[in-house]
Amino acid sequence: MTVNDVLTVHGGTPLHGRIRVRGAKNLVSKAMVAALLGDAPSRLYDVPRIRDVEVVRGLLELHGVRVSDGAEDGELVLDPANVESATTDEINVHAGSSRIPILFCGPLLHRLGHAFIPDLGGCHIGPRPIDFHIQALRQFGAVVDKAPEGMHLTAPTGLHGTKLELPFPSVGATEQVLLTAVLAEGVTELRNAAVEPEIIDLICVLQKMGAIIKVHTDRVIEIQGVPRLGGYTHRPIPDRIEAASWAAAALATGGDIEVYGAEQVDMMTFLNVFRSVGGAYEVTDMRPPREGSAGTEGKIRFWHPGGELQAVALETDVHPGFMTDWQQPLVVALTQARGLSIVHETVYEQRLGYTEALNSMGATIQVYRDCLGGTPCRFGRRDFKHSAVIAGPSKLHAADLVIPDLRAGFSHLIAALAAEGTSRVYGVDLINRGYEDFEAKLAALGAHAERA
Ligand code: EPU
Question: Mainly localized where (predicted)?
Fold first, then answer.
């Protein structure tokens, strides 16, 4: 953390105004990796300027992919014509910076016959193992050697389609299988796959490149390997996590925010909860330009309609459930709701640590090892504090906060904006990993915040 990595936030002002979200971080970064599989350039639109994108760009460039900015703002052109090996030292510059490098395994094995993956980074929200990834890669025929400096992989007899069943519908492991199976020889059947909208969008990207992928009912995906793939041109789905984060900010601060680019279809579960808490929203669908009339951009306006907010019980889950990345920002708004709200986190075992900071600001949040509300999950028996009870409403006051991870960091920021007084938020640069221009957006919404 640098000395300048601090935001002074003068809270208590409702956020009002409009901001725009671009392509989803958790699709864009994977679509960039997919470009490695093609034998022609790919073109990706609406790419946000965030650190995860920079890390993937750096890794692609190290492996010979030419990445250049296109004519449109946010357009990237990725040319994989000269894919080449990079040294362990070069790759290790990116060690600890993101979790996306694990997805380079399949594409690099296909293109080069070997791969080196540095130590992974990403948010510290529990152990985040990669056992499903390694098991899947081995089943495709990869030889995986874990070394102190990272992971070396080879595929002495090539990669071959296989039958797999994930112990849990992991987003990353599903993407690993997709990115490996599309060029593997034969058919791959993946059971208990994740089917998040970002995964379906990645399937669309791969299909544009020439892949044959069938999404069956009951989380079964079948991939028929093809001998070659071309490039793609793709406009990604919008970032539904960022959109929900700003929605929560509107509710927690008593404000009114129009989120341009946000789409209803992938946010339905969030919208239901938002309305149950007492938040108001209005969806404006995107309208394409027609002869004689300009089109309109889609947006969702989120606001606090006045009056009291109500407590809710929610459980995070894989799609179509309530996303785990939505809970941290929303919990700040739940501190303002009357009654006892319950949040049962079933995707990550340790994603409630950030509530301590909210308590230091006057919130009353208790975390429990039990599975509270809903169905018992796999963490109940394993002694993880993964349920929270939020008693409200609480008047939040300013505090000094240290940002622990991306989504919790955004919740700290919202809490500081909602609180009376001046807070200092340390480690805010971490928010740039997933929120484009968040400081400019805060300014546009009338927040009073400045560096250091
Ligand atoms: N898991 C394993 N073994 C594995 C892989 C996963 O046990 O080999 C477990 C994890 O520990 C976790 C669960 O499976 O308990 C789900 O993990 P998943 O693999 O689905 O998560 P991920 O792919 O690492 C992505 C997003 C996360 C998001 C989750 C869940 C990216 C880059 N990250 O992570 O987003 O929370 O899916 O939707 O796509 C974020 O954007 O801030 C973020 C953390």
Answer: cytoplasm
Q: Which CATH superfamily is domain 6-21+239-451 in?
A: Enolpyruvate transferase domain (3.65.10.10)
User: In this predicted model, what pLDDT tens digit does every residue of 371-405 receive, in sequence order?
Assistant: 997 788 999 878 899 999 999 999 999 999 999 99
Q: Which part of the chain is CATH 3.65.10.10? A: 6-21+239-451, 25-234
Secondary structure of the chain in HEC code, one letter for each residue: CCCCCEEEEECCCCCEEEEECCECHHHHHHHHHHHHHCCCCEEECCCCCCHHHHHHHHHHHHCCCEEEECCCCCCEEEECCCCCCCCHHHHHCCCCCCCHHHHHHHHHHHHHCEEEEECCCCCCCCCCCCHHHHHHHHHHCCEEEEECCEEEEECCCCCECCEEECCCCCHHHHHHHHHHHCCCECEEEEECCCCCHHHHHHHHHHHHHCCEEEEECCCEEEEECCCCCCCCEECCCECHHHHHHHHHHHHHHCCEEEEECCCCHHHHHHHHHHHHHCCEEEEECCECCECCECCECCEEEEECCCCCEECCEEEECCCCCECHHHHHHHHHHHCCEEEEEEEECCCCCCCCCCHHHHHHCCCEEEEECCCCCCCCCCCHHHCCCCEEEEEECCCCECCEEECCCHHHHHHHHHHHHHCECEEEEECHHHHHHCCCCHHHHHHHCCCEEEEC
Pocket test for ligand 1, best of 28, 168, 327 (most atoms within 8 A of CB): 168
pLDDT value of position 381 = 75
Q: The whole model's pTM is what?
A: 0.97
Assess whether 105 carries a catalytic annotation.
no
* 99 annotated as ligand-binding: yes
Binding residue per annotation — 347? yes
325 annotated as ligand-binding: yes
Tens digit of pLDDT for each residue in 169-204?
Answer: 999 999 999 999 999 999 999 999 999 999 999 999
The CATH homologous superfamily of the domain defined by 25-234 = Enolpyruvate transferase domain (3.65.10.10)
Nearest CA to ligand 1 atom 5: 130
User: Distance from the CA of 394 to the center of ligand 1, in angstroms?
Assistant: 32
